[in-house]
Write a structure and sequence with these properties.
This protein is mainly alpha-helical and 84 residues long. It folds into 2 domains: 45 residues, no CATH class; 36 residues, no CATH class. 23% of the residues lie in helices and 5% in strands. It has 2 helices and 2 strands, in the order H-E-E-H. Strands 1-2 form a two-stranded antiparallel ribbon. The radius of gyration is 16 Å and the shape is flat. 5% of the residues are buried.
Length: 84
């Protein structure tokens, strides 16, 4: 939801705009509002994969570090729209 109220979160007292919100939560919306400033009315989408893309501690089935979570799904989905 790109409600105008979220624009308050990218206002800055020392810069034109900032790329971080005012609190701990809502970072995906803040990032999207920042990107919205640069798209000049073009259709666009922001997909936030930061949370699942990094594993702090290893698990039995997953090493610590970058996971690539959602990347393969995104590529496969986008390839469905590609022209042959």
């Amino acid at each position: 939801p790109m409600f105008p109220e979220y624009s308050e979160q990218i206002k800055s007292s020392v810069a034109d705009i900032k790329n971080i919100g005012n609190g701990r939560w809502g970072g995906a919306i803040t990032a999207a509002k920042l990107l919205e400033e640069f798209v000049d009315g073009r259709p666009w989408v922001h997909i936030d994969i930061a949370g699942p893309s990094f594993q702090e501690r290893p698990k039995l089935w997953l090493d610590a570090g970058g996971t690539g979570a959602f990347v393969a799904t995104l590529i496969e989905t986008l390839s469905q729209f590609a022209t042959p």
